[in-house]
Amino acid sequence: MKITIKATNAKLTPEAHEIINKKIVGLLKYYNQIMEADVEVGITTTHHQKGSIYRAEVNLRVPKKTIRAEAETENITKSINQVRDILKKELVKYKELHQE
After folding, report:
1. Domains of the chain, each with CATH number or no CATH
2. For 50-82, what is each residue's pLDDT tens digit?
3. Which of 8, 79, 84, 92 stands 20 to 30 A from 54 (CA)?
């Protein structure tokens, strides 16, 4: 699987890259035919009173479909985890529909 990571309005540390890779590669156990993952993480705006809001968006390409999820939280790791949970449910549903 090819993973492309893009940061918007933020710099990603090597640890953040590692966490993203680990979470996305972990989705292979739910559906092993994921061809490509486009990950975009960043800060949505800087004018919030209680700090930054982090956004994570992932597009997974599987045979004949693209599965998309996004989340916004106050922590980049929480955003990644929420996106992973959404994608996990969608992959399981897709796998059940396309079993041969």
Report:
1. 2-97 (3.30.160.100)
2. 667 889 999 999 998 999 999 999 888 999 999
3. 92
